[in-house]
Design brief:
With 431 residues, chain A is mostly beta strands. Chain A is 8% helix and 51% strand. In chain A, the strands form two sheets. Chain A has an 18-stranded antiparallel β-barrel. A three-stranded mixed sheet of chain A has the order 8-12-11, with helices on one face. The longest helix of chain A has 13 residues. Chain B starts with a helix and ends with a helix. Classes of the chains: A mainly beta (431), B alpha+beta (265).
Chain lengths: 431, 265
């Protein structure tokens, strides 16, 4: 209800001071002298299915509301109404995806409200991107739909060519893992989450200093707070009262990223060192300190574009064998330890992955073909997402493709393959 | 009296010849240089419409806001382009630092990515947002990357123009810009481009660009923008029209506008 009130509040927002700049006046609508806000969005229908079953069938409406730029900023909101057609009965869900106010005060820019923040200059695999979580179970042709929003107070101080960004996240919001739907052994249930309380002292914050020069962009960043990926914990008071629950761990992450051009190639890199505060935890629910690095090249040949990346990870103080903390061999807690290692990608001391994203634009940029792929050389996990999209008109796009995970037993992609492998078709109308 | 008239006629004829010699004294490269100079405006804000029409007559319309400003004594033009319609490209923005003598620096902001991304500038031949205009058409050419030949004088819509053949100096430039040669028609009186004929990499005629209106944006320095340009691809029957709906001369656009800060707004 509160979300709906916020949305309606934006609708009736009466902002007296509109900017005079011709360029700025065009931001929200073509002839903005009359309009104070603009509504746009899309309606789409999606089908995800494998060889035998439907995985997800849904219709979704996205309504975006954006106010015109006024003297000190503007506001934006997006609501998504989704109806799933599978399962017992029709289930509808209203998602207040984003809703924030931008304030521009001299060299300071503020964005306050529910928002999605993406950090990192690498393509898709960003170890410095730790502020807002992801939903690993989402069915969508669009990778952005896996991103989840959270309430963030963001402040940017601009002193060109530098930017100093400070973000404060008062309430912890975890990512959605694929384990919740996993069948637990008999007698074990999912318990209440063990997440940080709503206290000021438990909030997350991050700062980033960016430099943007003509030939080089880069930034250093620091995150202090609870990691967006929760771990799995286990509690057993007696044989009749055993439960698994999600828990969050506190960590500090120092990051660095850059992008530049060398001849006809784009060169990008991203590095992050994360150091969890808690050094010991049951069943690996808190990961070890680690160093993550992504380095990539991209190049265009006419309408063909290729992005290649090497993605590596080095786990400090790595222990290969996952055993219960009390040293007792318990098949389920051992499994839990393996799951936690999967979540944090810490199955090995060193791991190496390659990502490739070839894309081709045809028929005057109305037909686009892309294959997003990731191959973890160390764990032999593979993810491939081919996608073809055709714009029948400016308003109507048809997409088809597949999302395919594959991995050996006891790997994350093996689990994901069981729930998410599917071909898909989407019909999307923009308005 | 007859003698006076004869002297006057001779004098006028002599003056015309001298004027003609003075004009023809310009080399093709100098004419091209002047043609570039007259479109180098200190700063502009504009709202434009780009209409893309396919061979079946179906139209796609893009609404664009553009700001430009000159830096480094006019040797660098910074440009920010932002799409405000249709919905599927709304918010997409390009930031370009267009240098005279080296490769441009370019960034793109796509709302779906939620971040600005540096893009490589070697593929200027690529279509600009699916139109018949290429990225090369959207930026000023590096004059030393081409050779120039004055083919004569020819009228375009009753305007006397220099006819110049422009050829890339090597295959790399040819591939990067997507044409083997270009014949341009530049107004003799104002040095504003009126028409260009593009030949593809196989030297076949591919596109014809016609400037249907020009706007004198800076009346003091006599600087111009193309009010309406029509690009017709004679090989595939497609047509793209770029038309300025509103434009303001503004040399005092804040430098901040040409940063990713404004690109992402």
């Amino acid at each position: 209800m509160k979300q709906l009130c916020f949305f309606l509040g934006l609708l009736v927002l009466n902002i007296p001071l509109f900017s005079q700049s011709l360029f700025e006046s065009s931001f929200t609508s073509g002839d903005s002298n009359k309009k104070k806000f603009q509504i746009y969005g899309y309606i789409r229908s999606n089908v995800f299915a494998n060889e035998t079953d439907y995985r997800s069938v849904f219709g979704e409406t996205s309504i975006k509301l954006e106010t015109k730029s006024f003297k000190f900023g503007n506001a934006f909101s997006e609501i998504r109404i989704k109806q799933n057609l599978l399962g017992n009965g029709l289930s509808s869900k209203v998602d207040f995806r984003e809703g924030y106010v931008n304030l521009y005060l001299s060299d300071f820019d503020f964005r306050i409200g529910r928002q999605i923040i993406v950090w990192g200059r690498a393509d898709g695999f960003n170890p410095t991107n730790n502020l807002t979580p992801q939903d690993f179970t989402a069915f969508s042709p669009d990778e952005d739909d896996k991103r989840l929003s959270n309430f963030v107070l963001s402040c940017t101080y601009n002193f060109h060519p530098y930017k100093l960004i400070a973000n404060w996240v008062p309430v912890y919001k975890p990512g959605i893992l694929p384990f919740k739907k996993t069948n637990l052994p008999e007698g074990i249930i999912w318990g209440a989450n063990d997440f940080p309380p709503y206290k000021l002292s438990e909030s997350n914050y991050a700062i980033k200093l960016s430099i943007e020069k003509a030939s080089f962009d880069g930034s250093v960043s620091y995150f202090n707070g609870y990691h967006k990926l929760p771990g799995l914990c286990y509690e057993s008071n007696d044989s009749l009262n055993q439960q698994v629950y999600l828990t969050a761990h506190h960590t500090q992450i120092i990051g660095f990223d850059f992008s530049t051009a060398i001849s006809n190639y784009g060169l990008r890199g991203e590095f992050a060192f994360s150091n969890p505060s808690q050094k010991k935890a049951q069943f690996g629910s808190v990961p070890k300190s680690q160093l993550e690095y992504t380095i990539g090249l991209d190049r265009e040949w006419g309408n063909f574009n290729l992005i290649t990346q090497y993605i590596g990870k080095y786990v400090i103080d790595f222990h290969a064998y996952g055993m219960s903390a009390n040293g007792v061999h318990n098949p389920f807690t051992n499994q839990l330890t393996i799951w936690n290692k999967m979540i944090y990608g810490q199955q090995n001391k060193l791991s190496h992955s390659i990502s490739l994203r070839p894309s081709l634009s045809l028929v005057h940029q109305t037909l686009s073909c892309e294959i997003l792929s990731l191959f973890n050389i160390t764990t032999e996990e593979i993810y491939v997402k081919p996608k073809i999209a055709y714009k029948l008109s400016d308003n109507l796009t048809l997409s088809a493709g597949a999302q395919l995970y594959q991995g050996p037993e006891n790997t994350l992609f093996d689990i994901l393959s069981k729930g998410l492998n599917a071909g898909f078709f989407e019909c999307k109308v923009f308005f | 009296m007859k003698k006076f008239k004869a002297i006057l006629i001779v004098f006028i004829a002599l003056a015309m010849v001298l004027t003609s010699n003075a004009q023809s004294g310009l080399t093709a490269k100098q004419i091209q240089q002047k043609s570039i100079e007259v479109t180098r405006v200190k700063g502009t804000e504009a709202i434009s419409k780009m209409t893309i029409i396919n061979q079946n007559g179906q139209e796609r319309v893009r609404q664009i806001a553009v700001i430009t400003k000159l830096y480094d004594n006019g040797n660098t033009e910074k440009k920010l382009i932002r799409f405000s319609a249709p919905a599927d490209v709304k918010g997409v923005g390009f930031l370009t630092y267009d240098y005279n003598t080296k490769d441009d620096d370019k960034w793109i902001y796509m709302p779906a990515l939620r971040k600005t991304r540096r893009i490589i500038s070697s593929e200027s031949a690529k279509s600009f947002m699916g139109s018949e205009f290429s990225y090369a058409d959207m930026t000023l050419p590096n004059i030393d990357e081409y050779s120039y030949k004055l083919l004569g004088v020819e009228s375009v819509k009753d305007i006397s123009c220099y006819k110049i053949e422009i050829t890339p100096i090597n295959e790399d430039v040819m591939d990067a810009n997507g044409f083997s040669k270009k014949v341009t028609f530049i107004g003799k009186s104002d040095f504003v481009l009126r028409k260009a004929v593009y030949y593809d990499l196989f030297e076949d005629k591919e596109k014809v660009m016609e400037v249907e209106s020009i706007i004198e944006v800076d009346k003091t320095s006599h600087k111009y923008r193309f009010g309406k340009i029509v690009m017709i691809n004679i090989q595939n029957g497609r047509k793209s029209i770029s038309q300025i709906e509103k434009i303001q001369f503004n040399p005092n656009i804040p430098d901040d506008y040409f940063t990713t800060r404004y690109l992402e707004r």
